């Protein structure tokens, strides 16, 4: 008999092999009758959508499916989802998929409640207008249920969504307290079909979340503690999840570590994400892979500020030394073990737009504001160029 763990933080979380079976009873308990499933065509082809759809319809639910979510969803993609939402009354939105799907579902629910929501709650302006969660205006946002099929973004437990502007190709972080999911279902069975290279990239994305949160200059001891445990779990279980795709223990622990990262990064992210957002919007590359490649270059650039904070990280990793060089050596070896490319050039990114990438990274206040060092656009450009060339300096 499968063991399903139940937690509340404050979202209700069901974790374990077969956890998806608890979704229908949850919907019954909440009285949800009209349901929109947001997903992508890759997940549809795997059969996960048809299974969920059949169970919900058999229970008398009225179910609509929007499976047109793109990788790196854009404002146009969100508008298409809102159109589908508007054609039918909806009691709840179920997001079934990776980080792009989870982000798109949040954006759809926000725009359905406020047609100008993507502009009104863009991170760059939202926290100037609304300095605390309680100061955000209340909106009739449709409740969200999150069912991640990758272990990386942590979007299932965050109040944020990352959406690319279809006009200027710049990624924007959208935030509102109403985007926190009503429930999350972490079922490792839904992740076993994920290819090894995506398991690795999304896993190092989660690792990046924890490391950046831990090194953030903000004072949030609870998040720092969660980050350290998340780092430990990923170091232990990600190689197994890549090497043994059907290892449900490793898969579940990676889902848990990914979700924990969203709790950890309440403390903030950093320069890795600032650059990854800039690059993802311009080049449409996989967000997790960008983070995985950029991580050691940004750690090295932050050395002057983070060197004296490294010892607890190295301790949970079981490293023999307590310096930043020891951590960097571990990161490089870990990435190599997972077949993560060492440079941006290896995934087809060239240095020609270095100045623009630096400007966009510095302007990404959702991440740059909590980097240990307030890098200028020129400094971000230099880090980017090092990552293109594969040179750690």
From TrEMBL:
Keyword field: NAD, Oxidoreductase
Gene3D superfamilies associated with the record: 3.40.50.1970, Dehydroquinate synthase-like - alpha domain (1.20.1090.10)
Entry-linked Pfam families: ADH_Fe_C, Fe-ADH
Coiled-coil segments: none
Annotated ranges, domain Fe-containing alcohol dehydrogenase-like C-terminal: 199-387
Domain of life: Bacteria
Needed cofactors: Fe cation
Annotated Alcohol dehydrogenase iron-type/glycerol dehydrogenase GldA domain residues: 10-188
Family designation: Belongs to the iron-containing alcohol dehydrogenase family.
Protein name according to UniProt: Iron-containing alcohol dehydrogenase
Organism: Leeia speluncae
């Amino acid at each position: 008999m499968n063991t399903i763990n139940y937690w509340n933080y404050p979202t209700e979380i069901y974790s374990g092999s077969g956890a998806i079976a608890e979704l229908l009873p949850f919907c019954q308990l909440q009285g949800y009758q009209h349901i929109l499933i947001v997903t992508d065509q890759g997940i549809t082809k795997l059969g996960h959508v048809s299974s969920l759809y059949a169970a919900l319809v058999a229970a008398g639910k009225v179910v609509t499916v929007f499976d047109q979510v793109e990788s790196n969803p854009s404002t146009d993609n969100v508008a298409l989802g809102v159109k589908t939402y508007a054609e039918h009354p909806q009691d709840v939105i179920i997001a079934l998929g990776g980080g792009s799907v989870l982000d798109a579902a949040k954006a759809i629910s926000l725009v359905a409640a406020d047609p100008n929501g993507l502009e009104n709650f863009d991170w760059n302006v939202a926290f100037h207008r609304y300095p605390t969660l309680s100061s955000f205006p209340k909106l009739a946002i449709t409740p969200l249920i999150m069912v991640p099929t990758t272990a990386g973004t942590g979007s299932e437990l965050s109040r944020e969504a990352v959406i690319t502007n279809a006009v200027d190709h710049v990624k924007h972080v959208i935030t509102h307290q109403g985007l926190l999911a009503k429930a999350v279902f972490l079922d490792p069975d839904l992740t076993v079909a994920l290819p090894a290279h995506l398991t690795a990239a999304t896993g190092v994305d989660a690792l990046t979340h924890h490391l950046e949160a831990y090194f953030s200059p903000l004072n949030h001891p609870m998040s720092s503690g969660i980050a350290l445990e998340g780092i430990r779990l990923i170091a232990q279980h990600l190689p197994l999840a890549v090497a043994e795709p059907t290892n449900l223990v490793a898969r579940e622990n990676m889902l848990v570590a990914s979700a924990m990262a969203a709790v950890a990064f309440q403390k903030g992210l950093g320069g890795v994400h600032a650059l990854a957002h800039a690059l993802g919007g311009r080049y449409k590359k996989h967000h997790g892979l960008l983070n995985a490649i950029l991580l050691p270059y940004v750690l090295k650039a932050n050395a002057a500020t983070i060197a004296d904070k490294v010892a607890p990280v190295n301790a949970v990793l079981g490293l023999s030394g307590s310096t930043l060089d020891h951590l960097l050596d571990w990161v490089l070896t870990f990435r190599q073990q997972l077949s993560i490319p060492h440079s941006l050039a290896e995934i087809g990114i060239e240095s020609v737009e270095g100045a623009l990438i630096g400007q966009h990274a510095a302007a990404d206040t959702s991440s740059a504001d909590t980097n240990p060092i307030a890098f200028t656009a020129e400094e971000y450009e230099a880090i980017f160029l090092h990552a293109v060339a594969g040179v750690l300096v």
